[in-house]
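Appendix B, record 7
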Amino acid sequence: MKKIGAICCLLFIASLSTSCLNSTLNNSEVQLVTAAEMQSILKLEDVQLIDIRTPEEHEDMHIVNSQNIDFKSPTFDEDISKLDKAKPVILYCNSGRSSAKCARKLEAAGFEKIYDLEGGLSKWKHSDKLNIKVKS
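Structure tokens (predicted):
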């Protein structure tokens, strides 16, 4: 019984030191947000809204006032270097998978505040929470 207690204590201490280490290494934290939360953020903060899908996907349908920076483009790193790292960024893609990868890349590049639209555009395209422009 004492061994189990000792193991639990060691695991607890290891988890605390790991979480403290992560928080000191990264000043940013990626936050998943819903469409409603995203709208609130857009109203309250000066935000860079980034659609990371292809230019064709962006042209077919996108959130109004979003900037298109293709995550799969060979110029992606150069394109994001033009953004303001101190200004919050909201990312979205089609499903949320690519934007999650992109968020980690922005975090590593030193962006301070990163939001990721949970589930991507496909989850929220029929929601009344987003102002979406669809090509007619």
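Remarks on this record: Helices lie at 2-25, 35-44, 55-60, 76-80, 97-108, 120-124. The radius of gyration is 18 Å.
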